[in-house]
Automatic annotation (TrEMBL):
SUPFAM superfamilies: Homeodomain-like, Tetracyclin repressor-like, C-terminal domain. Residues 6-66 form the HTH tetR-type domain. One of its GO terms (molecular function) is DNA binding. PROSITE patterns: HTH_TETR_1, HTH_TETR_2. Residues 29-48 bind DNA. This is TetR family transcriptional regulator. InterPro entries: DNA-bd_HTH_TetR-type_CS, Homeodomain-like_sf, HTH_TetR, Tet_transcr_reg_TetR-rel_C_sf, TetR_C. The keyword Lipid biosynthesis does not apply. The keyword Nucleotidyltransferase does not apply. Keywords: DNA-binding, Transcription, Transcription regulation. It comes from the Bacteria.
Length: 200
């Protein structure tokens, strides 16, 4: 009969998220992760198998927690505010992190996706969630007239995803508000509905 686990897996996984987020996949050693999680090495391997298995679970926790909660909160806003709110949230999260960790999802895209097709698929799914968020609000805004229809919503959603990725990467190098907001402004300007010409 298997012995019950003597630790809270959710708490341990959050500690692993913090470890991978701070150090990256390559630099985070199994020993460091186990210590951060409050586990012996034997308990670590029994519970999670190996570092790759832990990373997959930690990434899933990040996506189902941090990312999904952010999207759910912004989904309640009107379309234009939801789009601009996501970029504003990126700025505030970046400036509010003294460690300059960036985004765990985007860090994973840069750090480990080339090495592992399963992780690449998980990362692609997470990025797809962000793009889908933009796409539904861009379509809704174009339908209600608050967002210009001059560019296809599909193209704009890819552009906004690219802006998010770029902002997160740049924030790891130099977390400066003016720089981050200057990356967001040109994309947001594309959303402005065209004013009709004045009547002579």
């Amino acid at each position: 009969m298997a012995r019950p686990r003597e630790f809270d897996e959710g708490v341990a996984l959050q500690a692993a998220v913090d470890g991978f987020w701070s150090q990256g996949y390559g630099a985070a050693s199994t020993r460091d992760l186990a210590a951060r999680m409050g586990l012996t090495t034997a308990s670590f391997y029994n519970a999670f198998g190996d570092k790759r298995g832990l990373f997959m679970k930690a990434l899933d926790q990040y996506l189902s927690g941090t990312l999904s909660q952010r999207i759910a909160r912004l989904d309640r806003l009107p379309p234009r505010q939801a789009v601009s709110g996501y970029l504003a949230d990126v700025v505030e999260r970046s400036l509010g992190d003294p460690q300059r960790r960036g985004c765990m999802l985007i860090n994973a895209a840069l750090d480990v996706t080339a090495q592992d097709p399963d992780i690449r698929e998980e990362v692609a799914g997470g990025l797809g969630e962000i793009r889908a968020f933009f796409l539904r609000h861009l379509r809704a805004g174009q339908a209600d007239g608050t967002i210009s229809p001059a560019q296809p919503a599909e193209d704009l959603s890819q552009l906004f995803l690219s802006v998010v990725v770029a902002m997160r990467v740049m924030a790891r190098l130099h977390a400066d508000r003016d720089q981050l907001e200057s990356m967001a402004r040109p994309a947001l300007a594309l959303l402005d509905p065209c004013e009709p010409p004045p009547i002579p």
